[in-house]
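Narrative summary of target 7.
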Amino acid sequence: SMQRTVNRTLNSSHDHKLLALMNVTGFDPEKVTVTVKDGKVKVLAEHKEERITTGGKEYHCKSITKEISLPPGVSEDEVTYSL
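Modeled conformation, tokenized:
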């Protein structure tokens, strides 16, 4: 279950604190952007698909945006992330 995954992740990071866990399944890792600015971590995941159908072209777009404030005392250059 998702809860077990979260617990395993938390337990495996003894030296680091986990600020957020985000599910970006279905998104190309190259289309996931993480920026750290003004005391906030912003995550943007985008997926665009174009299909040719008998009626013409269809475009399917989906995106996820998440903004997390850094806890007090944590500097922006301490932030790491992984996919």
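Residues 21 and 64 are 13 Å apart (CA to CA).
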